[in-house]
Amino acid sequence: MSDPASIVFIVDDDASVRHALSRLVRSSGYRAESFESGRAFLAAADLTNCPACLLLDLQLPDVNGLEIQHKLNAALPIIFITGHGDIGTTVDAMKAGAADFLPKPVCDTVLLDAIGRALERSMQMGERRRELASLQARVDRLTPREREVMALVVTGRLNKQVADDLGIAEKTIKIHRARVMEKMEAASLADLVRFADKLGFGASTSMRPVR
């Protein structure tokens, strides 16, 4: 069953194609928002809504479809629809994360199936973003010392080893560790390690130990 809150963005410079795709999308229970150019889409589309996907013509007069894909930086799943595709372009688009690459004219059933998959992917992306935002908010509550302790604890180091590394008493480490567990809402060390992994621990500046 389609979700009426789902948005399908359509970008094609051919008005007849935009209208046909919009009718198909709306008849399937989704919201449709169409744009005649890549610049118009990039300037006006509200990408904060989720779930959403983009039906994108590869060869637009103003901005190449692959350029739009690059600018969006995986903000939402893209289904390329084009009459000018080639194997190299298809490979480039798929490597960059395109949800699908369909040649014109496209069968309605094939397109709707692709839209369904793309919107499901968008829902999963939204859930991951919300989870990461929640985890980052917890990290932001940590003091610099607590971040230092967390950075070492998630590597598997024992309290005594962490104390030696930081040059402070082991009992102080235990206090910091307990506060980290509480603020991160981690029920176990395994939870804490999993949270750090999801945040890309060690790669994010806000998660690095403060020295």
TrEMBL record:
The modification 4-aspartylphosphate is found at residue 57. It holds the Pfam family Response_reg. This is DNA-binding response regulator. The keyword Lipoprotein does not apply. Residues 7-119 form the Response regulatory domain. Residues 135-200 form the HTH luxR-type domain. Coiled coil: none annotated. InterPro entries: CheY-like_superfamily, Sig_transdc_resp-reg_C-effctor, Sig_transdc_resp-reg_receiver, Tscrpt_reg_LuxR_C, WH-like_DNA-bd_sf. SMART domains: HTH_LUXR, REC. One of its GO terms (molecular function) is DNA binding. Signal peptide: none annotated. Keywords: DNA-binding, Phosphoprotein, Transcription, Transcription regulation. GO terms for biological process: phosphorelay signal transduction system; regulation of DNA-templated transcription.
